[in-house]
Amino acid sequence: MLACLEGYEAVRLVPGRAPITCWWPQPPDDAEWIEFLRDAGLSADLPRPHPSSLPWLEKPTQPVYVVRARARDGQIAEYIFYATLVFCAGALALWFGLWQLTLTRALAEAQARRAALSSQLERVLADREAAERDAAAVAELAANEAGPEQIQLLLSVAQAGVGNGQKFTLDEWDVRNGKLRAALRIEAGDASRVALLRALEAIDAFHNVRIQVGNDPRMLVVTADLRSEREGSDA
Fold it and tell me: Distance (Å, rounded) from C-alpha 170 to C-alpha 192?
């Protein structure tokens, strides 16, 4: 039993074997001393020796390693088990963190791609709506411009005998919103508006025909409503 600078240490020395030591902060009681004897493989009847101090040396003759604690095989296995468990838990937490980071990054990239596709889709839809509006405008314009041809009007004027032997020209031709406005210029002489009116009314595409004299007496302004194809078939 050695009296150390801090506490007391019991040492069992056997030639050819590692020393067995045990340290206490205070002198061991009977129970602690018996426990040490059992761990050291000694008889529990050995009396507790009186603590003695080693002489101070100028320098150590050889390195001395003092064991301040002792561990049993069961405790070592338990330490290994808990260390393995902590390592596995840490590895699992690290893997989960990396997986969560990867998933978050993939989700952010997917959202960015979705936003880009949505922007492109909005532009495509806007272009489609603009094209549909343009097509509707073209169809409306085509419908407005649909109607009798100018040659029909000129032939009717010629057949009506308006200005026999005289020249006449078509100065204006406007078909819009189901209505016709045409301006005829007679080069000389008076035109028979009655004959011209009857000739124009004979055209199936015209109804509500009206003839007025313009600012120039030689100018006849013809206005008429246009019949649709359905109305013409019903008639």
Answer: 17
Q: At what angle do helices 150-159 and 193-201 cross, to 10 degrees?
A: 130
The answer to whether the predicted template modeling score (pTM) of the entire model surpasses 0.90 is no
Give the residue carrying structure tokens 């020395």: 13
Among the residues of the chain, which ranges form H helices? Answer: 30-39, 73-145, 150-159, 193-201, 229-234
Q: Exposed (0-12), middle (13-18) or buried (19+): which is 75, by Cβ within 10 Å?
A: exposed
What average pLDDT is seen over the chain?
A: 78
**Is the CB of residue 216 less than 8 Å from the CB of residue 208?**
no
Could you identify the residue written with the tokens 């009655």? 194
- Contact partners, residue 210, CB within 8 Å, separation at least 6: 222, 223, 224
| Residue 51 CB neighbour total at 10 angstroms | 14
143 Cα distance to chain centroid: 44
pLDDT at 57 over 60: yes
Cα separation, 38 vs 26, whole angstroms? 20
Q: Residue range 204-214: average pLDDT?
A: 78
